Each structure stands twice: as C-alpha cells, then as structure tokens.
Amino acid sequence: MKIDIMTMSFLSKMVSWVFPDYKFDRILIEFEKSMTMELDFTREAKNSERTASCFRKNSVVKVPYVFWQLTTREVLTMEFCYGHKVNDLDFLRKTDISPTKVAKALIELFGEMIFVHGFVHGDPHPGNILVSPEGHGKFSLVLLDHGIYRELDQKFRLDYCRLWKALILLDSNKILELGEQFGVGKYAKYFPVIFTGRTIESKSALGTQMSGEEQRRLKEDLNSLGMDDISSFMESLPPDFYVILRTDGLLRSILGNLGAPRHVRLLTYARCAIHGLEKQHKMESGAIRRMFLNVKTNVSYLRLRVIIEIAVLLAKANGAKQKVVNKLRQMLQETSQGFHRRM
C-alpha cells in the first residue's frame, strides 16, 4: 500500500509541476484514506453488516453473511454467494432474466444508498455486483467488496437531494443556489450537463438528446475553459462529491451495458431524492405530521414522474418519427434504384 501511495504522490507532484494550477492534493488524501480503510477487514465486515441492515426489507438485495469467529483485521470470512457479473448479458439471456429489470433494481439499490441512507459503496464495478438466479423473485443482486464506503455528511446528503429535485425541474435558480452551498459557485451551471445530459438553459425534454444548437453552444462554452477552471472546480467540490461522481459514473456505464433507457436512472433518482428529503422531516415530526408528509412525498414524486414520463413519451415519439423517416427514405432509395435499373 505504501508503494501505491508513494507512486500517487509522485505523479501528483509531477502533474502539479507541469500544470501548476491543477492540484491533486485532495484526491491523493482521499485515495490514501480509502486504501487504509480497505485493508482493515473488520471495518469491511462492519460495513457489509450495516448495508445488510439498511436493505433487510429488500428481497432483491443480498449481502454475504460475515463469519465473525473466522474474521480478523487481516482475514475476512464471508458466506459464498453464487452469481455472475451484473453486466453478463449471456448469463442473463440463458437464465431468462430481464436486463432492464436488473438495471432498475441496481439503480434503486444505489439511489437508496445515496439519497436515503447516505452510506455509499465506493466501488460498484461489475465484479463487485453479481446477479444470482437464486432469491425470492426471478433474481437477486449480490453486493460484494465492502471495504470502501463513504458516509455522506448529513447536510451534503440533503443538499444533494435538493439538487436532483432542481435538476429534474430544471430550476436554474435553485441549481445555482445549491452550487453556492457546495462551494462551486459559477461552475454549478454544469451540474445539469454532468448528471442529466442537458444544459441549464436547455429547452430539450428531460432524457432526450440536446439539440444541435445546444450542443454547439456547450462546446463553445467548454472550449473557453482553461486548466485553472478545471482545477478550481475540482478543488471546490466537497469530498463527498468525488465518491458520488465516481459511483454515478460506474453505474451509468453498467446501465448502458444492460441497455436500460435513460429515464430509468432519472426517475429512480428523483423518487429517492424526494424520499431522502422527507426522511429527515419524518424524524423530526409526530405521527400526524408523518402521515401528512407521506402524502406530500407521494404528490411530489408524482409531479416529477409526470415530467419524466412526458419526456419519455416525447423521446419515443421522436424515435418513432425517425424510424418512419428512415423507412420512407429507404423505400425512396429502393424505388429510385429500381427505376434506374429499368432505364
């Protein structure tokens, strides 16, 4: 581990020498902390048990049981769980498991981790998430490697919930306001691009591609950024954001492999963000107030769901329209080729 940290430190200093405005110090500190935690197997065992407790009512999620009598700081002994990598499409086809349902279960798992529990698995690559044909339903997700977790700061978790609500509604004022809370200032305008794939001034429907004009303006905007801008943005991010960005990036890659529609992630994050916000209110309220908040949560979620479902319908309509155009174009080409052959 010391060699890995020394290597990272050397590379950080070299990059800082070539690009003085680009500081890697905070990333190096986070890397060192993560490596230290991952090599303490009693910590990993406790993380796995905490995660199992968080999802004890979720019949799809499986966390291997820890055998404490055979576990030390240097040795971790856990239950063997059968399964294949979550993005193993051949296995899913052979076992008649729907990739879309797997994707939905996966993003629900991590959405709840991030927005509701604030206790996040820091390395969700396909090798750490297995799909098993065993379980109460058609399949179960087996979550492995609990060495790196991030317990989100409570204020950060709530602000991140608010950010996602604002992203879905494209509430630019709220996004910029939360950008100040996160300490990124003017760079908050890039949050919609990073998380939802549209600009803060976008007129495109949620979950659809940006228009050509929006892409052109975004490209010009990004080309105007220098290394000092990138460095400033990265340095200003709260430490919790590094884990969020990495986790979300890995999940989006897996969802893409599984062929999940883009709206699956957006809809799930919207629902989890609302529940994450209301969870805090419920903890501070009486029984009657909690009943009212349950209704309010459902109404808020339905509002966001309507927005997303409309976006999905528009995307499907555009897709159907494009298919018709392509078909007509193909028919026209075939007719033209037949005409020329007869000539």
TrEMBL record:
What InterPro entries does UniProt report for this protein, alphabetically?
ABC1_dom (IPR004147), Kinase-like_dom_sf (IPR011009), Mito_struct-func_regulator (IPR051130)
Its domain of life reads Eukaryota
Tell me where in this chain the ABC1 atypical kinase-like domain is found.
Answer: 1-177
Offer an example of a GO molecular function term for this protein: kinase activity
Q: Which Pfam families match?
A: ABC1
* Gene3D superfamilies per record: Transferase(Phosphotransferase) domain 1
> What are the protein's UniProt keywords?
Kinase, Transferase
Q: What is the name listed in the Swiss-Prot or TrEMBL entry for this protein? A: Protein kinase superfamily protein
Q: Which organism is it from?
A: Zea mays
